[in-house]
Write a structure and sequence with these properties.
heterodimer; A: alpha/beta; Lambda Exonuclease, Chain A; B: alpha+beta; Four Helix Bundle (Hemerythrin (Met), subunit A); 2 domains; 3-stranded antiparallel β-sheet; binds iron/sulfur cluster; antiviral defense (chain B); DNA-binding (chain B); DNA binding (chain B); EC 3.1.-.- (chain B)
């Protein structure tokens, strides 16, 4: 039996993107709470500006579009908010309160930039789908990623490989969190675009054993 | 390294601050107000009576912008902190270490090594820049004495022993401090350190600069998740920001003493800007306070190479970098806490 987490243990789903970018960055933000305005809160604010009204549900061509949908998975131990979920009429779907017929939920995630070479966005989308599956007892074969820069949405097939990756990442995140563990620095190319570089100080650790020498050297100076 | 944090200092005692959208509005009366975007602001330090609207406090807490209240004379009153306050794991480590003298000693001695090195540097600078105006022999002797103390500090095993070394160092340093004042001698002289209240103009100036520095040290420590109230050198006492005082030790000579001397020696401030009250205590007037804060802000923009990181950073970031290095040491990433040495 896979373990189930309690409500108190849920970690932010949006952390997956930090975790995949750099585990240390994730730990600095989520374990050490060393968040910076420009990373988390600014993202949150932008999101709210973009998503017009969370209480407004649109119906377009028979598709129900719900915005800012709160989601959680107790199996993954993650919770968060889905930008948008599209419900399309389908016999494989589920009943939703106040509507006739059955609908299949499809998560839609909006990204400001363009498609990336790594699977960060896919993994996050897949985690959202897994939350919805658990909450609605349904299987969701695909989701959409919408990129602001290309103004295109791409269907993402939520296959086993992706699901296993989500499972693995969520498990690791919880293991780190429980131990209160922040991985040591491995300076990489990513550091240059990392907004936590001034908190992480990636190049300090390279000199890690030399502080005693540093002090001695300065004290003996004239 | 990163950009220098922006600090908004509110120096007029009669203004009121409020929030409008994403801006802070500084209002003096019905007609005069200034608006500044909150975005990019890292700290707001208020020396006003009227305070700040609750909405602005909330916005600062949410965004992690430091908001501190000081009385117009610079006495610390309080600060607003948000939901995320520090890092529990790191603070537990900090508390644990603070309970064991043997683990406090290496950190405390780093702070003092930094302090005495930098105090000595203040003297050495005067000797170098004003060799003809100062009493070379006395200053030279003081410098040599500080160097001996510096060596002694590296082998201390107990806090009282460290304190004794620091006591002798402070005595010798302050005994020659008056000689570093080269201008306006009739208004600025220094016999000994007086604090509550400062009894002469120089002490009043130093106290004010130390207050600014305390506030910077507190926000730097809070920003990296440490508890500014639990120190390694300064003992715990309710209401005393011991760790901020610890961290300040190495920064005082560079940030405050040296700045005080240059404000006086360059005649940027004069004796007229200070008033002696009936009790003997000295009050600094608004304009002088503004001049001091402007000089402080300018100082913070100057770039230096950090001796340990070997990176160029603005002066104003030093408290943050030192707080970070301390956190890294407590987390076990470094073998010791590297003090800031001023070159
Ligand atoms: S600076 Fe580099 S190592 Fe540090 S958190 Fe960022 S990406 Fe990770």
């Amino acid at each position: 039996m896979p373990r189930e987490y309690s409500a108190d243990e849920l970690l932010p789903l949006s952390g997956i993107q930090h975790f995949l970018f750099c585990r240390r960055q994730w730990a600095l933000i989520h374990v050490e709470m060393q968040w910076k305005e420009n990373v988390l809160t600014a993202e949150g604010r932008l999101m709210h500006q973009r998503v017009d009204d969370p209480f407004f549900t649109e119906v377009r061509n028979g598709v129900i579009l719900a915005r800012s949908v709160p989601i959680a998975s107790y199996r993954l131990g993650l919770s968060g908010i889905c930008d948008a979920v599209e419900f399309t009429s389908s016999p494989e779907g589920v009943k939703i309160p106040g509507r006739e017929g059955k609908y299949l939920p499809i998560p839609v995630e909006y990204k400001r930039g363009r498609p990336k070479s790594d699977p960060v966005d896919e993994v996050q989308l897949c985690a959202q789908a897994m939350c919805l599956e658990e909450m609605l007892s349904v299987s969701i074969p695909a989701g959409y990623l919408y990129y602001g820069e290309t103004r295109h949405r791409t269907a993402v097939n939520l296959g086993n490989e992706l699901r296993e990756l989500v499972q693995k990442m969520a498990g690791e995140m919880h293991a780190y969190f429980e131990r209160g563990y922040t991985p040591k620095v491995k300076p990489s190319k990513a550091c240059r675009s990392c907004s936590l570089i001034d908190i992480c100080l990636p190049n300090v650790q390279e000199k890690a054993t030399s502080v005693a020498n540093y002090i001695r050297e300065w004290v003996e100076r004239d | 390294m990163k950009t220098l944090s922006n600090v908004l200092y509110i120096t007029s005692p009669e203004v009121y601050l409020s929030l409008d959208g994403e801006n802070v509005v500084v209002r003096k009366d019905e007609h005069t107000s200034t608006r500044l975007p909150l975005h990019n602001l890292e700290n707001i330090v208020c020396f006003n009576w009227q305070g700040v609207s609750p909405a602005l406090m909330g916005a600062c807490a949410e965004r992690g912008i430091g908001l501190a209240f000081l009385s117009p004379n610079g006495r610390f009153l309080g600060r607003v902190t948000g939901k995320v306050y520090g890092n529990v794991l790191l603070r537990k480590k900090q508390y644990l270490i603070s309970e064991h003298e043997s683990q406090c000693v290496p950190i405390a001695s780093s702070f003092l090594i930094g302090k005495i090195y930098n105090s000595r540097k203040v003297i050495e600078r005067a000797l170098r820049d004003h060799g003809l105006l100062v009493d070379k022999d006395t200053l030279g002797r003081a410098s040599a004495f500080l160097k001996e103390i510096l060596k002694g500090l590296t082998t201390c095993k107990h806090i009282p022993e460290l304190m004794a070394f620091e006591g002798s160092a402070a005595k010798i340093y302050f005994s020659v401090f008056d000689q570093l004042i080269l201008q306006q001698k009739e208004d600025f002289h220094f016999e000994e350190r007086s604090r509550r209240p400062p009894l002469d103009n120089m002490n009043s100036l130093l106290s004010f600069l130390y207050t600014l520095l305390t506030n910077e040290a507190m926000s730097a420590l809070e920003a990296v998740g440490l508890d500014p109230y639990v120190g390694f050198l300064h003992a715990d006492r309710p209401g005393r920001p011991s760790l901020a005082l610890d961290l300040m030790e190495e920064l005082r000579p560079v940030f405050a003493d040296r700045l005080a001397l240059s404000l006086v020696n360059r005649k940027q401030i004069t004796g007229k800007g200070f008033t002696q009250k009936e009790s003997g205590g000295i009050l600094m007037d608004d304009d002088t306070r503004k001049t001091v804060i402007t000089a402080w802000q300018e100082r913070k923009k100057e770039e230096i190479e950090h001796p340990y990181l070997k990176e160029r950073i603005p002066f104003g970031l030093i408290p943050h970098v030192q707080a970070l290095l301390l956190a890294r040491y407590l987390r076990g990433d470094l073998d010791a806490y590297p003090p800031f040495f001023w070159n």
